[in-house]
Amino acid sequence: MQFYNLKTRSHVDVEEKDIRKTKMVRQTKNGEQVRYALTANYGGSKLFKFVNKDTFDNTSVDEI
After folding, report:
1. Domain enclosing residue 29, as ranges
2. How many domains does the chain have?
3. Of 22, 30, 34, 56, which sees the most CB atoms within 10 A?
4. Is position 63 within any domain?
């Protein structure tokens, strides 16, 4: 899967075995906000890729 590395300012391909998914939930004054993200470690950098709920549910990697 392709991630964008902010340090090198380039796209990198990460193997699916190195990817984990996480759900970030926070309280706002209007209720609860949920953000879905895929995370990976690549070359000592932690990479994030924000995705929609459908992509999050259909990705078959472990959840943190």
Report:
1. 2-58
2. 1
3. 56
4. no
